[in-house]
Design a protein that fits this description.
Radius of gyration: 18 Å
Number of strands: 8
Mean pLDDT: 95
Low-confidence stretches: none
Shape: globular
Number of domains: 1
Strand order of the largest sheet: 1-2-4-3-5-6-7-8
Oligomer: single chain
Number of helices: 11
Structural class: alpha/beta
Order of helices and strands: EEEHEHHEHEHHHHHEHEH
Distance between the termini: 18 Å
Strand content: 15-25%
CATH superfamily: Alpha/Beta hydrolase fold, catalytic domain
Helix content: 40-55%
Largest sheet: 8 strands, mixed
């Protein structure tokens, strides 16, 4: 493996917000942008994962989405009532929200532009995959390829999450550091699937670093409201011409495999790669398959 440099933490002004980011690899390498999921800071794209991906010849960029981590928060704005948001959507109306997934897609495009990249390979996990889909629909000129991991089209007819996952995700996380770390590790174990070995020590380090960088529970609610309001993208996805790879685990308890199948079916020419035993997380055990899939698709 080549010596893979990692930049210091940096900040960019993009789409009216300040985005925290760092990079792995060499400036002349092909850019590859990683977009994280709901309520998750960029550090959950593990440094070792990023280095291994960068060793394939990419300048890997990871960043904190708005309202999470060290990027701009929206705590001056109200926290959406998720029940009211859902009722508004069921009436066929558009809820008034602090921001939408479209805004978050524009953040990603603007970050690329701020870093001097006209286009990049886009890799999104869960909500990040949804943001990548929106980029492919509305900003295709900025995408070389799209890889969505453990994501969905937003079709309400798809199978719902398992009850035990919802129980964990809807339970308030403790606000003290030891309690938060323990709860994070338990949630990561459940999300990872039954058959995938979990590196608890690594998950504990992610949790500790997330806590120390700063938590923003209201931001998670605002992001979730944006997901709800995004609705069903199936029809829009049929217009996507960007080469697309859909990676999904067959043990995903949050977004069942049918969500990945629906995503691949909606995008013309998309390829579906099913990873046996993988749930709704990226433990070390699945890295070799996921990294190879991303790199082969981007190549």
């Amino acid at each position: 493996m080549r010596d893979i440099p990692q930049s210091d933490l940096k900040f960019a002004e993009a789409n009216g917000v300040t985005i925290a980011y760092d990079t792995f690899g060499h400036e002349g390498d092909t850019p590859l942008l990683l977009i994280m999921g709901l309520g998750s800071q960029m550090i959950l794209w593990d440094e070792d994962f990023c280095r291994q991906l960068a060793s394939k010849g990419y300048r890997v960029i990871r960043f904190d989405n708005r309202d999470i981590g060290l990027s701009t928060t929206f705590n001056r704005m109200a926290v959406p009532d998720l029940t009211a948001v859902t009722e508004t959507l069921l009436r066929g109306d558009v809820p008034l929200l602090p921001y939408t997934l479209d805004d978050m897609a524009r953040d990603a495009v603007a970050l690329l532009e701020a870093l001097g990249h006209d286009s990049a390979h886009i890799v999104g996990e869960s909500m990040g995959g949804m943001i990548g889909q929106i980029m492919a629909v509305h900003f295709p000129e900025h995408l070389r390829t799209l890889t969505t991991i453990m994501s969905s089209t937003g079709d309400p007819g798809l199978p719902p999450p398992k009850p035990e996952v919802l129980e964990i995700l809807y339970a308030p996380f403790p606000t003290d550091r030891p309690g938060y770390v323990d709860a994070f590790v338990r949630a990561f174990q459940v999300l990872s699937g039954l058959d995938t070995p979990v590196d608890n020590a690594r998950a504990r380090k992610w949790a500790e670093k997330s806590f120390d960088r700063g938590l923003n529970p209201p931001g998670v609610t605002r992001q979730y409201a944006a997901i709800l309001a995004a609705g069903d993208r199936t029809t829009e996805l049929k217009t996507v011409s960007v080469p697309t790879l859909v990676v999904h685990g067959d043990h995903d308890p949050l977004m069942p495999l049918e969500c990945g199948r629906a995503t691949a079916a909606a995008i013309s020419g998309a390829r579906l790669e099913i990873i046996e035993g993988m749930g709704h997380a990226l433990p070390v055990a699945v890295w070799p398959q996921v990294i190879a899939a991303i790199a082969n698709h981007a190549a």
